[in-house]
Amino acid sequence: MEIRVRWRGLDRETLTSPGVRLSYLLTKENIDFPFPCGGEGLCGRCKVKFLKNPPPPTPAERRLLSPFELGEGVRLACCAVVEKSTEVELLGERTVVPDDFLLDLASLVSPGHPPREGVCCCALDLGTTTLALSRLDVCQGARISVEVMANPQIVWGSDVVSRMGASLEGKGEDMVRVLWDLLLPKLEGTSYLVVAGNAVMETILAGYPVDSLARYPFESSFPGGEWKEEPVPHYFMPLVGKFLGGDAAALLLVLDLMEVDRPALALDLGTNAEVLLLTHRGVRAASAPAGPAFEGVGITSGIGL
Ligand code: FES
């Protein structure tokens, strides 16, 4: 019988005999799907959705899944035993950075804006709290200057959750305007700007809605990797996925981490922190709000202000 597995960019078909447990099949296929309780049927976190022929729910699935989920074909990979050909969508987070994303990064150039002698470009590290604007000579590969300043969007909240809330309340255009008001005078004489920010910051600046980031599936409607011509030509670094934004992509690119020959850990500890672990099995990445931990924002005991 044939089983097709889909998981955020992964699309795999495999043949197997009836009666196989889905977790066994995923492991056999080297699909790095997480089983937080070790496949004991205790945590209910290894959710998958059967798009065809869902197997009858097991007692553990009846306990851990809602009647609505069961009716929609949702099952637990560590419990479901597959008896018929089917298609399964894995619902867990995929934290492995896909190989093709890394290849795209490796070949990243400036489409339409090739480096020319004497051309200046700027790179913006678009942080939730802080902006770092570097002026670069792209032919020489040299940084001419860097200016660090506060992100004026802070009036709409100090973390990405508040910014998403403001955007959902219709403040997105105002947030974009204050940012360009600050940046444009500093970009005079610049041919183009490259922007690397977390998923929320890039999505808001690109003018896309944040609904799908703020709620399930927690995925930006803006993939990044795009040029915009107004108000100045600017390029958004591609978003890795979920809350891993263009800053994580820039980290991979700039540090040339694909070349490392032993396990390495890269940390970008800002208001939103990205952690990238590189091993021979690929790159694993995660992000979490770190501002309260490192800046004392909103903490009322311990290191709070
Ligand atoms: S891994 Fe915990 S229920 Fe499946």
Summarize this entry quickly.
With 305 residues, the protein is an alpha+beta fold. Helix content is 25%, strand content 29%.
Q: Topology of this structure?
A:
Layout: E1 2-7, E2 10-15, E3 20-21, H1 22-28, E4 47-50, H2 59-64, H3 67-71, E5 74-76, E6 81-82, E7 86-90, E8 96-97, H4 99-106, E9 120-126, E10 130-137, E11 142-150, H5 160-183, E12 192-197, H6 199-205, H7 211-214, E13 226-228, E14 234-236, H8 246-254, E15 264-269, E16 272-279, E17 282-289, H9 291-295
Parallel strand pairs: 1-7, 9-12, 12-14
Antiparallel strand pairs: 1-2, 3-6, 4-5, 4-7, 8-17, 9-10, 10-11, 13-14, 15-16, 16-17
Helix pairs in contact: 5-6
The structure holds FE2/S2 (inorganic) cluster.
Domain 2Fe-2S ferredoxin-type: 1-94
GO molecular function: iron-sulfur cluster binding
Protein name: DUF4445 domain-containing protein
Explain the overall architecture.
GO terms for molecular function: iron-sulfur cluster binding. The protein has 2 domains: 2-93, Roll (Ubiquitin-like (UB roll)), CATH 3.10.20.30; 109-255, Domain of unknown function (DUF4445) (Nucleotidyltransferase, domain 5). The protein has 9 helices and 17 strands. The protein has helices at residues 22-28, 59-64, 67-71, 99-106, 160-183, 199-205, 211-214, 246-254, 291-295, and strands spanning 2-7, 10-15, 20-21, 47-50, 74-76, 81-82, 86-90, 96-97, 120-126, 130-137, 142-150, 192-197, 226-228, 234-236, 264-269, 272-279, 282-289. The strands form 4 sheets. A 6-stranded mixed sheet has the order 11-10-9-12-14-13. Helix 5 (160-183) packs across helix 6 (199-205). The chain is elongated and about 65 Å long. Bound molecules: FE2/S2 (inorganic) cluster.
